[in-house]
From TrEMBL:
Pfam families for this protein: ABC_tran (PF00005)
Gene transcribed to yield this protein: ftsE
Protein name as catalogued: Cell division ATP-binding protein FtsE
Species: Chelatococcus asaccharovorans
Chief site of localization: membrane
Gene Ontology MF terms: ATP binding; ATP hydrolysis activity; transmembrane transporter activity
Superkingdom of origin organism: Bacteria
Alphabetical keyword list: ATP-binding, Cell cycle, Cell division, Cell membrane, Membrane, Nucleotide-binding
Membrane topology reported for the UniProt record: Peripheral membrane protein
Quaternary structure note: Homodimer. Forms a membrane-associated complex with FtsX.
């Protein structure tokens, strides 16, 4: 699903932020990506998301070398991934429902074809009562769940979540983790970037640990 071979990345003329990364992400797998602040977790997620290119080394996503991916195939590869950003990136002028439905609207789908599915997903993440409000009136945890629902609505094969429990209390954090585990059981590969040891200790999952630009893997 994802393969890195000796990947290095530097921003501009700066130092190498990621060094000699070699690892792969299997279909239907579940893993945490961790390491101290500034270790490069977000940078690594951006490489997988095809929003950054490696300075050296080879990355292949869904079996295709990313240096060969452009135009339509880039859009197709991105559509197979769901992302939950640290800062949610909800659009404040659209309701919660409209935010979650947006990826499908962008794909040109008719509302009648997806309305029931969006409503069902909003209920699943516990936002059934909040679907018609605008994001500025949602709490931090509600925004987080809306961002998760928007990432899931495209039924991604690979879900990337950057600190998905960063803004919620431990109880909601546990519920969100169960949601990701359930999604993984349904067949999606999941990568959760987090500092939260309390969260990681709840699941016996693979850990990808970044430290000083290098990756250590604990299976
Ligand atoms: N656009 C950029 N331009 C230059 N340097 C950057 C850029 N983005 C990140 N960096 C640097 O790259 C390093 C890794 O940053 P990154 O955001 O990937 O770390 P992180 O592990 O996700 O951190 P956090 O846990 O605090 O979110 C840091 O030293 C950061 O300052």
């Amino acid at each position: 699903m994802v393969r890195f071979d000796n990947v290095g990345l530097r921003y501009g003329m700066g130092p190498e932020v990621l060094k000699d990364l070699t690892f792969s992400i299997a279909p239907r797998s579940f893993q945490f990506l961790t390491g101290p602040s500034g270790a490069g977790k977000t940078t690594l997620l951006r490489l997988i998301l095809l929003s950054l290119k490696p300075t050296r080394g080879l990355i292949s996503i869904f079996g295709t070398d990313v240096s060969q991916i452009a135009g339509d195939s880039l859009t197709t590869a991105r559509r197979r991934m769901g992302v939950v950003f640290q800062d949610f990136r909800l659009l404040d002028h659209l309701t919660t429902y409209e935010n979650v439905a947006l990826p499908l609207r962008v794909q040109g789908k008719e509302e009648a074809s997806y309305r029931a599915e969006v409503v069902e997903l909003l209920r699943w993440v516990g936002l059934g009562e909040r679907m018609h409000v605008l994001p500025p009136v949602l709490s931090g945890g509600e925004k987080q769940r809306a961002a998760i629902a928007r990432a899931l609505i495209v039924r991604p094969e690979l879900l990337l979540a950057d600190e998905p429990t960063g803004n919620v209390d431990p109880n909601l954090g546990r519920r969100l983790l169960r949601l990701f585990i359930e999604l993984n059981r349904l067949g999606t590969s999941v990568i959760i970037a987090t500092h939260d040891f309390g969260l990681m200790d709840q699941v016996d999952a693979r850990r990808l640990v970044l430290a000083e630009g290098r990756l250590h893997i604990y299976d």
